[in-house]
Amino acid sequence: MTLEQLRIFAAVADLLHFTRAAESLRLSQPAVSAAIAGLESEHGVRLFDRIGRRVELTAAGHLLREEARAILRRVEDAGTRMAEMTGLARGALRLVVSQTVGHHWLPPRLLRFAAAVPGIRVDLEIGNTDAVAEAVREGRAELGIAEGTVRDPALVADPIPGDRLVLLADPAHPWAKGERVTAEGLAAARWILRETGSGTRAAFEQAIRAAGVDPAGLSVALTLPDGALIRQALLAGLGLSVLSDLVVADALADGRLVALRGLALPVRPFHLVRHRDRHRSAAERAFVRLALEGAEASAEG
Question: Per the database record, which ranges form the HTH lysR-type domain (predicted)?
Answer without folding.
Answer: 1-58
